[in-house]
Structures are given as structure tokens and as C-alpha cells.
Amino acid sequence: MVFAEDRHTDAMSGPSGRAILDALKVAEIRHIVALPDIVTSSGLLWPAACDPDFRLTRVCKEDEGVSICAAMSYGGPRAILMMQQTGLMDSLNAIRAIGVDYARPVVMLVGLQGKEPGLPAADSASYGVRIVPAVLDAMDLCYSWLEAPGHEAHIAAAIDAAYAEARPHVFLVGRAPEIP
Amino acid sequence: MSIARDAALRAFIPHVGPRDVVVAVYQTNFDWIALNPRPLNYVAVGAMGQALSHGLGLALAHPDRKIFVFDGDGSLLMNLGALVTTAGANVANLSHFVFVNRTYEVNGGHPIPNAKAVDFAGFAEAAGFPSVFRQSEEAVLIDTLPKMLATPGPRFCALEVHAGAPYPRDYSYIHGAAARQAFAEALRTT
Questions:
Q1: Which residues in A have their CB inside 8 Å of a CB on B?
Q2: Chain B: nearest CA to A109, how far in angstroms?
Q3: Measured between alpha carbons, how far is A89 from A108 in angstroms, rounded to an integer?
């Protein structure tokens, strides 16, 4: 299920890192679990690491974060897992079992290293990028895109929906967010 | 020397309070829920190796509760980085006990890699756990458990065990929605 279209954009810049972090706060995300990803490092993870409104837990491997976020969803503060698409691929079994089979709202924000700005992922020259939406579709995972200014507007609603419907959601970051 | 697993688990029962959470895996999980059935047993971690990460999430979410993780040795080997993550997360309310039988017991009894030599407590020490223990005698475990649980957390203990009495393996219960719903409800009300 695609929450928002992987639409072609002529924007010359990526989404706003500040707007993304503000939207996470609106969605009551208070805990970030992360492995550094070069797409989101400067625009999101470093600013979040310095933001007193978030608690940051750095993990050694991405599937740890799936479990941490799932466990926190039992009565704890809302959490989000930040990683690169390589970590997403490495975590598919945990997402399958813990997020889908156990119906937990595991929310993930995934930088797509190598994605060409403005080009639909399905048309990417990079196999590692091209397969991501197809894999998420095959798993019936809900996902949406953060690739251009304005895309941040749907974040809070998507997170609220994931919690209300007890299911994972994946934000795919197709272009480095602008540094706040 | 080693401890029968069910005897080791019985030693924990007096120390698990009504608000505490227990995350257990595989045969240790089946033994524990037979010996001490309670809604705050977190019975399903979904994927092998994930018990400590679930425990960390629960410890972060509920700093006012004690979180016990009863892990397996083969399971922990799949996610050794979680020791480093947990040691760095400053969660004083988490206790990680690894039941070391040096086999994949529910998957045919095959040995873990390098079974005779691997030192799980050594992993925890190297990862930076502030309190690390090794236990292989039942009487010593019973005697020292209160002191262990009073040390700075997160704390780690490698328990050398062997299979005790057989307990049923009810996979449909641990993976079923009813156990998760009961757990969530108990968190709200306990």
C-alpha cells in the first residue's frame, strides 16, 4: 500500500529537515532509534541528536531497532527507527514477524542511498534502490515518500494511522533533507 | 557443572515482582510460563536473537519497572551487538540472564559454534556492562541472586544450564494475539 505517490518532482532541493523533525514532534515521537545513514545524517540525525525533545538510542544493527520500537509501543513513548535501505533489507524478517505478524506500529524512516532525485525509484539505475518499493509492496507494507519540500506534511497523519491500525509504516527519504 | 534449567528458573520466582516484566525465549520461555504463568511475561520476540532488544525497548519505555531477559546462548549469538547497544543505553532497570546450554536445544540439539570455548560473560564485560556474573551452581545462584539484582544495571549473568523437567512447547500461545493483548492490558492495570 503506497500512502503517497512516488511522484516525479522538479524540486531543486530535498525536504526540510526541520519540517520533518517538527512533524515527528507533532506525531508525539519522543524516541529515535538509529543507525547512521549518509542520506539523513546531516539533515535529520545530527539535528535530532542535539534536540532535547528527542531521546536517541544508537543501535549496532537495524533489526535491534525494530524490536526496540515494537516493545516501546507497549505503553511507552512513540518511537521511530532511522536507517538506510541496506538496513531495511537486513531487517525484513524482524519487520515481518514483529511488525506485521504481531501487529506493532513500527515506524521507520529510511534513507535511499543512490536514488536519483526526481526519478521514480522503479526507474533507478541502482538495483538496491529499484527493489525497495517492490519488496515493500510484496510484504504489504505501508510506505510513503519524503523527497521534496512539502512532502513533510503527511508525516504526522501517517504515524497516527500506523498506531491506530497497529501496523508498520516506512518513510522513504529519496533525497537528503535540507539541514535545519 | 551446571544447573537444571527449571531449578534455575524457580530461583527467580521470588525476585520477580507483580509489576516486573519477563522476556524469555525458546525452551526457557516454555519452562518459565509453565512455572510462573503471569500476564507480564512477554512471550514472543518474533525473530531469533531479538530478546535483549525487546527487553531494552521495554526498559526504556517503563523505567519504573524491572525488566528480566531470559535469553538463549544461540539466540544471543545472532545479535551480539545488542550487548553493546544495551550497555550504552543507561538502563538501570534491565537484567540480562543468558541460559547457556551450548546447544540449539529446540532445533535438534546441535552445538553452537565453538561451543566449548565461547565465553558469554566475557562478551558482556567487553561490551561495557557494569555488572557481570557467571553462575553454574544452583545453591550459589539462590544465595547470590539478591546481591546480583542489587548491583548497578544493566546487569548480565551467564548461567550454565542443562535441560530439566520437560515442559510443553505451546507455540500457538506464545505467537498468538491473546498473549499480547493480555500483556498490554496488564501493563495498563498493574
A1: 31, 55, 57-61, 63-72, 74-77, 79, 93-94, 97-98, 101-103
A2: 18
A3: 12
How big is chain A by its Cα radius of gyration, in Å? 15
Reading phi first (left if > 0) and then psi (alpha if -120 to 50, else beta), residue B149 is in alpha
Distance CA A62, CA A110 (A): 11
Segment A102-145, tens digit of pLDDT: 999 999 999 999 999 889 999 999 999 999 999 999 999 999 99
Q: Which of B60, B69, B183 best tests the A interface by mutation, with the highest count of A CBs <10 A? A: B60
Cα–Cα distance, A18 to A20 (Å, whole number): 5
Measure the CA–CA gap between B151 and B31, rounded to whole angstroms: 26
> Contact A64/B82, CB-based, under 8 Å?
yes
Helix ranges restricted to H, chain A: 17-26, 46-49, 62-72, 85-90, 92-94, 127-138, 155-165
The one-character DSSP state at A45 is I
Of all residues in chain B, the one with the smallest CA distance to A104 is B180
Phi-psi category of B113—alpha, beta or left, where left has phi over 0 and alpha has psi -120 to 50? beta
Q: Tell me which residue in B42, B46, B60 faces A97 most closely, judged by beta carbons.
A: B46
**Alpha-carbon separation of residue B113 from A151, B110, B116, B118 (angstroms):** 48, 9, 9, 8
DSSP summary character for residue A179: P
Q: How far apart are CA B156 and CA B173, in angstroms?
A: 28
Which residue, B114, B33, B107, is CA-closest to B70?
B33
Nine-digit cell at B107?
532445533
pTM of the model: 0.96
